[in-house]
Known about the structure:
single chain, mainly alpha, 5 helices, elongated
Amino acid sequence: MRVLRVGVPDAAAVQLRRTLEAAAAHFSIKEKVLMKSIEKLISDGHVTQSFAPALHHIRAVGNVGAHASDEDVDQVTAEGALRFTTQLLRNLFEVPGELNELTQKPVQPLPPAPSGSPAAGGPPRR
């Protein structure tokens, strides 16, 4: 985020690619080729198949940023890669904790609906 703010999208793209590698490594996936790590994240069920194109896009954008060539990563592309990387991290690390917290809380019954309300079987109020 910092390098994007100062206008260095190539560097941001490389860091986002490294973030994918680190996320995979957290799940003990340390393939030499990031494409294989992404495929393993999916096959092991950490990421859904529908997310694969976004992950491969982040990987490809990171490759462009990492290598000297005629091609550069522009700000808009890097920002898009950041949004998907953020979603990946949220899905891998935050959502499971939130779901666990939600399911660990006892379910509180709803209070009874007031008589005459649609929920209580009475006519709707006007």
